[in-house]
Amino acid sequence: MEKPSLPKGTRDFGPVVMAKRQFILDSIKKVFQKYGFQPLETPTMENLTTLTGKYGEEGDQLLFKILNSGDFLKDVDLQKLNSRDSRLITHSISEKGLRYDLTVPFARYVVMNRHEIALPFKRYQIQPVWRADRPQKGRYREFYQCDADVVGTDSLICEAEIILMIKEVFKSLKISDYTVKVNHRGVLSGLAEIVGAKEKETALFIAIDKLDKIGEEKVKEELRSKGFDDKSLDVVFEILNKEGSTATKIELLTNSFSTSEKGKKGIADLSAVFQSVKDYGVSEDHVEFDISLARGLSYYTGCIFEVKINNVAIGSVSGGGRYDNLTQAFGAKERLSGVGISFGVDRLFDAMEELKLFPEETQVSSMVLITHFDSESQRYGLKVLQTLRNNNIAAEIYPDPIKIQKQLDYANKKMIPYVIVIGSEEMKSGLLAFKNMKTGEQTKIGIEDILNTLK
RNA sequence: GUGGAUGUAGUUCAGUUGGUUAGAAUGCUAGAUUGUGAUUCUGGAGGUCGCGGGUUCGAGCCCCGUCAUUCACCCCA
Asked: What are the φ/ψ torsions at residue A338 (nearest 5 degrees)?
């Protein structure tokens, strides 16, 4: 007999974990709805052509591909098959793949349904995604993303609202020590332009993105190996090391980027976004303009966001940005700009678990368990149970006539906070033994009083 | 894809230079208690020591392989 097991990087979520996950999911969903986003779900699998080429070369390798049904080898070119190079035959044996994120399926949906979508279109989407990555801490092969995107407007108010939503989500999750890092692709391009490294842009971005992780010296080392000379490194780090408030940084960088159109646009956008946040009457706490923030996904073109929880060794728990050309990849003729944010539930979960931030109530299933000494009192309890439920109180009765210890033990394990004990005395007097499982306190009161306590 | 670490009851871990029948804590379970749980006491179940091979009179321990888990790199939620 084979021992059962799970595929690498996947997990079961038992009731205790689910209660906590629901708490996170509900908090995020509520915020999305409050900001006017509407739900969307897309299929687990997409045509491979929809997915490939959207995430860069690395991303394509991380796609889970689905083997064609039926006799999938029948029409494969024999020569390619014999070459034993699987890359040559992938496209002929697999035409579907599991979704890698929620943004690309969303873009596909928008293009396919353009005629019935009212622009600007705001949708949220909460579904699992799959990546054929090697799992490690905070990295899974199956995980949930919670996305909210707006397409069909260039307005920077959307960027500001993304910041507001992040702040609301973290507030309702009671995560207080976090940083929303904001940057702009234009600022990064400007930086590359200034040092005359337009064609080495990507190498520059990848290197400086690691700044807070590996430090200035290591980044310089990496850049030197990519062919950057000391003079341009000085220029780059003079800009990266600018200190001060967001406003100060913006002011200083306006001068630095006076020769770069892209850089100027980036600074202007960022400045407008921060101004909007102020206009909403929201403080800039937790929000930081970070010039070294790059983010990998190649489709971003404007503002980019990333959220880190401080003092927890886990990657970013949320990220997003603006993308101008995503729908064009699907043949859309009109230019549709989109901007969005994605929360990683699994990492939020890990971080909150580590910080012990889950409220105890999230684990409560039923509020009340009705226990009984015999089948007669159990029968009496059914009416009581129904009364509780009619008053919208989650309640259950122990289904078997067993000793009271077992029943109380069950309440303990399920973390049910209150127990009603019914026996001959209770049936005679109509006053029920009402026990608080946490304090051990027990009183004999009528059902009306019980309802009042629980409401 | 590259490199490192770890695999022993359900779980967390002990296990001496290789030596008879592999232990603890916790959890599970039954009772002490015929109307009361989480703190008490007593009993019980539970392990092909990841798997395969090798060295040896003898392997949980040493060697090789393999699988799984995990951490880091790359990249990312």
From this structure: -130, 155
